[in-house]
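S.,

Sequence below, as promised.
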Amino acid sequence: MNSIQLEYFLNVAKCGSFTVAAKKLFISQPALSKQVRLLEEELGTLLFIRLPNGVNLTPEGKKLLEQSEDIIRRIKNIPSILNDLHHTVSGELNIVCGSFLSRKLMPDLLKRLLARYPGICPRIREMRTTLQPGLLLNGSADIGIGSTFQTEERLSCHPIFQSDFVLIRSSRSKTAAGKRFSKRELSALPLITYPKGTILYEAVKKTLHPYPLNVFMDSQSSETIIELVKENFGIAFVPDYLIEPEKRSGILIGGFDSDVKLTVSYHYFPERPLTPQAKAFIAVIHEKFGIET
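The prediction came back faster than expected:
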């Protein structure tokens, strides 16, 4: 068995046809069929059921398919891994990130990054997403991480994960735990929200549109908003990733289905070449969240 045979098998499985796979691989169909047949002989089992108009995977073929993609990916990464031994990535990496996302994401991301590239020196500045573009455009920051409800058009934006925008209220509120709210009802309740001009404030506006916001108070801090909701000062809308298990006590989550989604992304200025440090950090993000390159 060799990597070429596995790659040929993988292409036939994905295409569902030897003919289509051969064209995709720019080889003759007999050559492709021969390599797959040799692989089947070595494994002692049929991997495909040959049909007049294509192929189906056998149970053994399905099992091999589960493993082969990861094997091929690892083989293709070997040159890069060996190259890292001779070309050490080092130097300063400037990251701008929202305060909560910084606490949630950075410890594990930096642990992975520095285990691989101990010469990198990360510098993290916590700030709202709306303030990040200026630093990315003028070169003060290499990478920004934040909620992408709207973004600076000149930046290259790449999703990391998506979050629902959920209603929270105090478990001591007079509303029943299973109650469903209309926009009209919610617009009449005191609202604790983020300051005007922030991405999350605009998300709340979009959620309750066309009704006005009955703002009781605003805060930059998600933790403050959640604590005020617990004390029954009002309701709030927050991204669900903010509601960590230890913070769920004392609040009710749900009661309104918002169609607003918040995407947490990393972004950079594409007209300035990424530093090796920034490329290494992006690779770690992709690895952690299973993002295909």
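The chain has a mean pLDDT of 88.

Coffee later?
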